[in-house]
Amino acid sequence: MLLYTQDQLNRYFRHVGYSPKDAEDDLGRLTLLQLRHMARVPFENLTLHYSKYHRLSLDLEDLFEKIVDKGRGGYCMEVNTFFGAVLRSLGYTLINVGGRVKAGDGEYNGWNHMVNIVTINNTRYLVDVGFGSNGPVNPVPLEHNHVFATISPARGRLEYKSLSQHTDPTSQRIWVYSTQETPSAPWKEMYCFAADMEFFPADFEVMNLSTMTSPQSFFVQTVMCMWFLLNGDDDDDGDDDDDDKKKQPIGVLILHKDYVKRRIGDKSEIIEQFESEEQRVKALQKYFGIVLTRKEKEAIRGLPSELKRSSGHC
């Protein structure tokens, strides 16, 4: 099993602004690291649009180069593979498992998501850094009907139950992650996952191939990039460990198709719209620090996701 070296871990810690001394126990360290990761490593699919071959690698060295050296991110199988390897390198016990995302028609898709199940002091936790703006932001204990905070006023919930699609619902159960936008809003199921069945790298290779190549895949159709916003991240009052411990997610910054949106709590605003590839590429650099090469910029030409009304070559 490939693990990251201490030098690689130190480089990753510097990249996300994390110090292992900021927490006193394993759960606290994991909680802080997950927050720092999700605020610095974007959930994005840019390689599927801005690269020569439009393919994604789950190789750990490729992921380290992409995320740490190049300052990029990835979608669920990339960032959760990477984060799981980081946790294993730190001595955590975990398994990688598969999930099914609930589609807009109310049916669960095939295996198309990945999460990590981390065990600390005999308690298992859902750890997912790859579900975008609706994902959990902290380790979540696997407890039936457990309700927890995400980005206020939204909440998350875990249930262990049968699905309407199960052909024998009396004997089948699976973990279901749901979200609620406000305390008075209905709960919406987001995805289910098989916490008791470890998925191997070969399983995710099959899942990854489908997700990154299917014309029906959201990630193939749409250019997107987002990360979480933490309270106090814009402060310029120096490095204060106590302040770092108090930081919590307050919103998200999202680039989706032809706009950038900032959501703080339940308030959203479009902060920039663009009509050309040149404008979108500039927005990626402005808001996420992602700089594309000339060849990467050119690779989207002719794809359905290209912004057609170009003001010139970018």
Describe this structure in words.
The chain has nine helices and 13 strands. It has helices at residues 6-16, 26-40, 60-69, 76-89, 201-213, 218-221, 241-246, 277-288, 294-298, and strands at 43-44, 93-101, 113-120, 123-127, 140-141, 146-149, 155-161, 174-180, 188-193, 224-230, 249-256, 259-264, 267-273. Helix 3 (60-69) crosses helix 4 (76-89). The longest helix has 15 residues, at 26-40. The protein is globular, with a radius of gyration of 19 Å.
How would you summarize the topology of this molecule?
Blueprint: H1 6-16, H2 26-40, E1 43-44, H3 60-69, H4 76-89, E2 93-101, E3 113-120, E4 123-127, E5 140-141, E6 146-149, E7 155-161, E8 174-180, E9 188-193, H5 201-213, H6 218-221, E10 224-230, H7 241-246, E11 249-256, E12 259-264, E13 267-273, H8 277-288, H9 294-298
Antiparallel strand pairs: 1-10, 2-3, 2-9, 3-4, 4-5, 6-7, 7-8, 8-9, 10-11, 11-12, 12-13
Helix pairs in contact: 3-4
Strand portion = 15-25%
From N to C, what is the helix and strand string? HHEHHEEEEEEEEHHEHEEEHH
How is the biggest beta sheet arranged? 8 strands, antiparallel
On the 0 to 100 scale, the average pLDDT is 93
Helix content: 25-40%
Alpha-beta content class: alpha+beta
Q: Given the C-alpha coordinates, what overall shape results? A: globular
> What are the segments in which pLDDT stays under 50 over at least 5 consecutive residues?
310-314
